[in-house]
Amino acid sequence: MGSFWEEVKCQIKKIVPDHSYRMWIDPVELLEHDNHHIKLSSPNAYSIKRLKDNYLSIFEEEFSRIGINDINIEFKVSSKGKSASVGKNKKTSAYPAVPLPSKKLKQMHLPGLNVRFNSGRMFKKGFTFDDFVVGDNSNFAYSAALSLAQGKTNGSNILYILAKTGLGKSHLSQAVGRHIITNSLSKRVYYITAEEFTNEMIFSLKNKTIERFKEKYRKKCDVLILENVHFLSGKDATQNELAITLDNLLEADKKIIFSGCELPDDIPKLNVQLKSRLTLGLVTQIDKPDYATRVRILKKKSKIFGYDIPNQVTEYIAQELCDDVRQLESGLFGVAAKGQLMGYNIDIELAKSVLANITKAKKRITVESIKKMVCKEYSISEKDIVSASRKKRIVKPRQMAIFLSRKYTDQPIKKIGNSYNKYHATAIYAINAIERELKQKSVLYEQVSYLSKKIETGKL
Asked: I need a labelling partner for 25 at 20 to 30 A (CA). Which of 221, 273, 275, 385 fits?
């Protein structure tokens, strides 16, 4: 009875990443079956929801391969002393007992695709056009994104959103995808970062499924949302594949949204073919919000989260925190949390106590202060760190300083490179070198953690 089920699991194991198979597929067992009905067991309702959302089409296709067609797959929670059935098209009473994520919208599954690579991103609940606060800093970007989502593009289906971290480019990108899905304009929307696109391509090459990867992006995608395109720097194979993918999508009149911290022309080691495609459409920019916009952002957030913040406190936060939206949110949440948890009245004094650490640390973090700290910690001079020396005792601290400068300041890479007497491309290389070592959890990982803690606590 179970032999065909083992065959199905064996086939799924070949096309699903190993960690995903172990976590979600391997625990599933066959309970019973007939010609048109199959009942499978899984440990809990959350696992069942995950299976239905991400792997149901894979099950159906693999059953079809062995001649079992037109079936209804039913999942059943199976645990000690408890069980509940979850049909393919019906709700389950087991769901309320399991805490499910409440601030994410499931990324729509591409029809016909028999494996969903796990790097596909989820839409955040609040990232909609309605929840985006428009100001002079973002009016053009908002209008362009909304027009693209509604199909009013005046001949261009490509949008490039340029913004520093924390200013709302992810919000607008996801708002486009969400609008298209919720208004039934298309279900074939794929939202992913450039890093995840690269990793998925490498995964496909290693597992000899590259044709499936190509078909997914070139033929089964109506809307491609690609974030952080600056990650593509120096990745020639990914750049070539993406350029061909974009040609296919453009030829088929599909929608494409890019976002990044730098303009394509400013991204080093980006081939001419890809640069030309990234700049084919409309390029829009989101700048830092002005004071009036910051106040409206804070009031909008307070309303969404149910915070009762007096106007004078809102205005004080908007006055003190002016770098980006994330910083504003951090200040607002900190003030609300301290007031609620400690039972304090939310007033200016409370706001000052919460914002003191944020503003103090922020004001002290500069490229120069990071440079001085790194020189002191590694016992080298500031003259050494900006020199042309290639000695390891100089190169590694220099790379560390450039990496930390990029992480903790809003200075562009080109300017950071100039501060260390290095070219733009050299600064990019230094950042990538540190990031590679961090993944290995080496001694450098502890050094970065130590230095980061000093920066974050204002002990520069």
From this structure: 221
